[in-house]
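Researcher: We are triaging several targets before committing to wet-lab work. For this one, the compound of interest is NAI. I'm pasting the protein sequence and the ligand SMILES. What I need is the predicted three-dimensional arrangement of the protein with the ligand bound, expressed as structure tokens, so it can go straight into our comparison scripts without reformatting.
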Amino acid sequence: MAEEKPHCKVVLANSIAKSLLEEVHDGLKKIDRKPLLVGFLSSADPAARVYAEWTGKTCNENGFAFELREVDRELLEDAIIDANNDAKVDGIIVYYPIFGNRQDQYLQQIVDVSKDVEGLSHRYIFNMYQNIRFLDEHNQKKSLLPCTPLAVIKILEYLRIYNTILPYGNRLHGRTVTVINRSEVVGRPLAALLANDGACVYSVDIEDVQQFHRGEGLRKRRHEVVEKPGWTLENCLPLSDVVISGVPGDKYKVPLNLLREGAVCINFSSERNFSPEVKEKASIYVPAIGKVTIVVLLRNLLVSKR
Ligand SMILES: NC(=O)C1=CN([C@@H]2O[C@H](COP(=O)(O)OP(=O)(O)OC[C@H]3O[C@@H](n4cnc5c(N)ncnc54)[C@H](O)[C@@H]3O)[C@@H](O)[C@H]2O)C=CC1
Ligand SMILES: Nc1nc(=O)c2c([nH]1)NC[C@@H]1CN(c3ccc(C(=O)N[C@@H](CCC(=O)O)C(=O)O)cc3)C=[N+]21
């Protein structure tokens, strides 16, 4: 008998973005004018330009104004300060990499917290790692989460990896997730967020493997990190219900032979980290997430205005 096609469901970012956009449209109705998002492009990275162009398109199609300011990187600091002080500007995003070193982190912190839609201001990142979910003591103002990690979470919610039978904050209890990338903008915050929600997370970078977890019975209030000396993907992948990969460059491929049968695979790299054969083994495959990230950006802008 001929073999049937593999039963992998490929979920595209577009369908997930659509359900989030409805929420954004509802939020827009509650404010009296068209919000203005300003993007600063001083990066030579082609991915940054493409991302900026998509952001503009998504804004225009959904009732936001977007202004792209292309400035020389030496003038960027003052340009950000001007936007901070301009009451007409509701949100600011600065595209990276610019200098590709610690100066980028310095510039990131120049953006006023109230206009930071990317959620990378120190205050937001601190709250995230500490598992503090609100900015005020009355739990009225939500602390923003970094866009790309939050986009991944929205995808996991959409895919029902988050179990809504469990209380909010513990909905990943029992899930094991591998995150391949530990950058300060995506991989490390993502591992922390998933672990704060109850998952056992293996965070893999080019050097080593770390485990992020709230401990047996989720007794801890926030995640702890332990080194896994000698561990590699060979140890993590066979244990993982979900594999999230974001390795830059077109050389890298996740070793599919190590994947658990029926794993959920998500790629956030600009390049495909999973070869097409992933569909032979995965139950769900999400090949790219950029469109969701942009909608989360708009959602963050609205949340910060509340
Ligand atoms: N879809 C989206 O919304 C977004 C996508 N990206 C994309 O994600 C990718 C990563 O971006 P960043 O985190 O900013 O990059 P980065 O260069 O700062 O970090 C790369 C990470 O991957 C790890 N890595 C590299 N080679 C590896 C290997 N062979 N095995 C295991 N780990 C390895 C590094 O150790 C590091 O932790 C890029 O392609 C970028 O364009 C970035 C931001 C948002
Ligand atoms: N401040 C800042 N924040 C960023 O988030 C940021 C940045 N700077 N600089 C540039 C990188 C790059 N980046 C991507 C966005 C979407 C896709 C992506 O996955 N896009 C398509 C995939 C395209 C394809 O089909 O190959 C999609 O989701 O449909 C990739 C990469 C965000 N970045």
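Researcher: Any quick observations?
Model: The pocket of 5,10-Methenyltetrahydrofolate (ligand 2) is lined by residues 13, 45, 47-48, 51, 93-96, 118, 148, 270, 288-291, 293 (CB under 6 Å).
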